[in-house]
């Protein structure tokens, strides 16, 4: 096993933590860099701690970075301040393991989070723990509950009209079958990718912007997965050269596969950890729909947003949900004027999948059911 020395800011004091070379580089905003540099030596102000922040917490299986941050801070997305990272470390956050004990140290009006048994920093002292560069270990805790979104990552397909028309398509099924199921054969035109395994999907519902009515994309229904067993080719028939479509074998189905269903390469497994962070610019928008058959969404459900990567939205962004203010009468005045109460933040979204003009987010917390048309914004 190989190890590599790295210098970490001492105030993080998270012990011997792992960092993967496969992890994606997360966007680091100017605001995050400034915050992290401010707290790297000092810690956070006591006023920023959660009211019931524990003095110590033993990391256990099932914990998440979001959950631990919620224990100690009033705003979980302010994770750089919790760990006291400098801007280099924000790009590839450390992984934390069950069994570690985190201790909250309060001194001089500030607070630092340390691993039990670690010595406090002094002056310009730095720690250089040994770091294993490897694949993401199975027992490292995730930023958010990974099991809630991982199945969705392979299933969610949002395409515009041109993309759907150009996607490889099933043109025939095995003889005698209108629809095919697991283990059966179908034939496909248009395969350009060299991938061996594909997702199958069917034209789905249009995702319309609640404000403009514009179709932002088409949420295509996941049908299943298939393996390519024979590539496309050509054949001579009665002196003519005819195309021979590729052959696929259905591996797994959510519903039976039929002529006209489209294909897309199966994405690589998502190894990267999703790290909560504040958008680097002001973002406002509305919820398009609740994923699945539900009309409203609660905690741990998935919603589609009318903003995507083209608008600056990216994986890991934290957003506030807003409840529209009610219209009430002023009964303290004889005129009985109608008044509109201000909107109130009542929940939190965590963006985990983005397309060009659409994104999907997990409802992390919410006080009331969430519906299409509800507003979201950058956290306050």
Automatic annotation (TrEMBL):
- The answer to whether keyword Endoplasmic reticulum applies is no
The signal peptide annotation in the UniProt record is 1-23
Under the heading InterPro entries, the entry gives:
Bact_Kbp (IPR052196), LysM (IPR018392), LysM_dom_sf (IPR036779)
Identify the domain of life: Bacteria
Q: Which CDD domains match?
A: LysM
Q: Output the Pfam families linked to this UniProt entry.
A: LysM (PF01476)
- Report keywords, A-Z: Signal
Is the keyword Cell membrane assigned to this protein?
no
Record-annotated LysM domain positions: 55-104
Q: Which PANTHER family match?
A: PHAGE-LIKE ELEMENT PBSX PROTEIN XKDP, POTASSIUM BINDING PROTEIN KBP
| Name by which UniProt lists this protein | LysM peptidoglycan-binding domain-containing protein
Record the organism.
Inhella gelatinilytica
